[in-house]
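A note on notation is needed here, since sequence and fold are reported together in a single record. The reader may check this reading against the record printed directly beneath this paragraph.
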Amino acid sequence: MTRIRPGLLTYRCDERADESVLLVHDVTTLGRSDTCAVVIDAPTVSRLHARLELQHDRYVLFDAGSANGTFVNGKRIQDGYQLSTGDEIWLGSSEQSLCFFDPEETLIVPANHAPPPLYIDENARTVQVYGVPTPLSPLEYRMLLYLATNPGTVCTRESCFLSVWGQPYDPATCEDALNACIAKLRRNLRAIAQPLGQAPPLITTVQRSGFRLDAEVAFAPRAEAQPVLKERALGA
């Protein structure tokens, strides 16, 4: 069957803007060399680190004999690994992270129940956008969680920074970091929602005040704390 919509890799790096690469070829190479289709210039990445092959209309990831290994969802792969939407790929280390999305993959959802724009599992510290796992950095996750626990409320810059960084907000030194975190969070939510044909969960900037999450949010049930049994001391 001819593929109509190619897969997508989103390259995540905290020190630069995120980049998206359409997997339009049957073989896509990843590595540090300029000859690779996806170039990731990092010392932990080998010149030819990994490759993605389109096999029977599914994308399969192979390590190409790299020095530091190729990982999917935190586990090192030895043989070909068939990717699914939401899989997170590490090249050498978690600092070089890519997120895979397949627009032609069949997503299984409960009957008569569409997944919400945002689903947050605080126990696992994971986020889904319209049912698709969405990798976020720790800062982005804490920012989204803070906004999501105050839905429809304008969260001031001061309260956002204190919640995410645990430090008081100083506009002279903190504004750039806060704006960058919000911008990356928006890009990552948009990178998942748009290929699904959905509107990204909206984070509204309220001028001279702060930010507001204008999207439906569902939370996973919280795990109940296990009771702590204390032995009574002898003679008590």
Notes: Residues 190 and 200 are 5 Å apart (CA to CA).
